[in-house]
Amino acid sequence: METIFLVLLLTGAALALLSVLSGLGHLGPHLPHVHLAHLPLLHGGGVHVSDVSPVNATTITVFLAWFGGIGYILTAATHLPMLLIVSLAGLAGLFGASLVVLFLFRVLLPGQTPALRPEDYRIEGTLGRLTVPIAPKGTGEVVYNKVGVTRSDGANSADGAPLPHGTEVVVLRYERGIAYVEPLDRLLAARTPPSEGDL
What we know:
Blueprint (H helix, E strand, L loop, with lengths): L1 H24 L31 H21 L4 H27 L18 E6 L6 E8 L2 E9 L10 E8 L2 E6 H8 L8
Parallel strand pairs: 3-5
Antiparallel strand pairs: 1-2, 1-4, 2-3, 4-5
Helix pairs in contact: 1-2, 2-3
């Protein structure tokens, strides 16, 4: 029985470590557990506490590690009856899993960013900068930031006019991977009402 407890301890600890590593850096196999990198809100949906089960691969592996560890220690260091050792190890496993659940529901989930909305992904109206100039009726490149990610796309001038490198632009429309842009200063000038001196 001592060997079984040791195997459970090592297996639970190894799987829990893989669970944490795959959540932080997408290392190791993808386990069906809850971790920050795979929470639905980071893919555009909302996360509610009711959507997350306290029984998941992470809490199960922590239970196994605590159950195996306490069972191994009690078996090796005491002469308690096996039924009592299994009971105490089970309580320890539940305690360890409960700590993970408390951390998840009290610390991780409440601190999450609010769910992203579909309009957060709209490219139209986004401010960017040309990293490759646009030749007359040609294609350049625009770099912009969307939902915290820097992106670059092919860019055409909305009116076909050339635009130099470094021009601040606004994406007016986006079609087939090409952003049609207008210089920001031109848009601002068109929307600024004339002053009394210009009348």
